[in-house]
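Why run this: before we spend reagent on co-expression, it is cheaper to look at a predicted model of the complex and decide which construct boundaries make sense. The entries below are exactly what would go into the expression plan.
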Amino acid sequence: MKRELLKFLAFSALVLLAPLLFKGGYLMNVLVFVGINTMLAIGLNLLLGYAGQISLGHAGFFGLGAYLSGILTASYGLDPWLVMPLAAIAVGCLAFLIGFPILKLRGHYLAMATLGLGIIIYIVFNETVELTGGPSGLSGIPNLSIGATTFDTDIRNYYLIWTFTLVIVLLAVNLTNSRVGRALKAIHDSEVAARVMGVNARLLKVQVFALSAVISSLAGSLYAHTMTFVSPASFGFNFSIELLTMVVIGGLGSIYGSFLGAALLTLLPELLRGAQDYDIVIYGALLMAMVMFMPGGLVRGVPELVRKVTRMKGRPDHA
Amino acid sequence: MQFDQLLQYTLSGLATGAIYALIGIGFSIIYNSTGIINFAQGEFVMLGGMLTLFFLELLKLPLWAAIPCSVLASTLGGVLFERLAIRPLRQPTPINLVIITIGASILIRGLAMLLWGKDTHSLPPFSGDEPIAIGGATILPQHLWILGITVVVIVANKFFFYHTISGKAMRACAYNRRAAGLVGIDVRRMVLFSFIISSAMGSVAGIIVAPLTMTAYDVGIMLGLKGFCAAIIGGMSSGLATVVGGLILGVLESLGAGLISSGYKDAIAFIILLLILFIRPQGLFGKADTERV
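The model came back. Tokens follow.
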């Protein structure tokens, strides 16, 4: 546990100091999105990496949070800080209810069902034009503010978003090291065995599904208030796949891996700015390569690679 | 509601349904021989249409030559996919297989976009576009081509699976892979066969639908998902049940788009998909004893 605490403190220090390194500028804006994506990736990882249940519809929950916050604050003038938890609870309840029938399915069938769910939500965003503004989006969402401080600059948003992200990281690390976390891993390895040991697998899977939807919704609300504009395109099937890629690349079942995956995939398009159209090809190739050559993700694959290389160097006469 | 209109929607729904059926059978064939849901199935549909266009316009081949070339090239893509991505997989867990087939589908789509751009293209209809009147409704010659070719492909499929040694061996793998291996069937070869057949069928579907609905690098996602939906309604059978599933889906979608709202057309397929998965995961016609979930 002490080690976990140290890791968390080191990570927090990194997050706090990062703005000093980059001295503001455009990159700060990208780092805000790294924070939001880290939250989303952790949410999905709890479900996929720990409980072993895939979801290809998480962009839908993210979008529901964003739209609930956006509509209720921009069109109905409610207080953002009030709407955010309400949206999270609403999305959580929805996920909880859908969770029972949907998590009865396994493997490929679960993947297809969650994918269908995500697409249905996406279509609703597009079609309920009076509420959401349809494909052209919803604008005029207010920034968040505490007292007289409005979070309307990149640096302020950075600290706002990352405060939430760090809380989520801490909660997730705690959860995965608890009895519940061990029960989840047991379901991942063998659901039957877990049930024999007295784990209520069905309920637990649904609870994790709901929890990860709540995290996604929260990230969605924050996204809406940071961007002050949302449109359906951000919450489609492609984004669900991007989230999946983050989790797989970082490492299934690793909280800090989710951060790595989110950081890599958020920064990658910025690095590839000149080659915009190539990013889709690179996503596909990355996904395939990771599953084929580094199924444990970066957090496990890279240390293993380093070990292999050093071992080879340690025995130069072996060849 | 006029009868003419209903008839019109039903007829055009049947034609799209036939496409879904072809794609759905492709899903089922791979699923039955490997247990994999091939998320890249839709990309072979896209490849069919786009490659035909490529042979037609850039290589100036006539249509009758461009079509078989395109089917061959897409099938080759299917072979490469099986050889390079599926077979070497070290940990073929369902989640890894889902991710790798999704990865492949993104990669294929991306490459198609880089090669042929983002524009929407249309293929010329196979035999003109003079509408044919049928009892108050009209259909295009292309609709007839679609229905005709679908029937031919399905009959050929049936013949292959029931009257040839390879087809029977593949069915044996679908029943029980280990037992099939024990009686001397080369299971891995049958897996390759299933990828060949399903990518060929997918590309045929993509080619015959392209004159009707246009084609672009990203048409594979929706068509693939609808095909999967057809297969789910048919209980992942590679025969008549999936065909009926596709036709039901096509007609419901067409009626829904015409009578309710065209914006929610795509949602209809996914609502049906979820309902079937929740209530009858064995398919509309299956017996409850098959464990598909």
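The radius of gyration of chain B is 19 Å. Strands of chain B lie at 132-134, 137-139. Bring this page to Monday's planning discussion.
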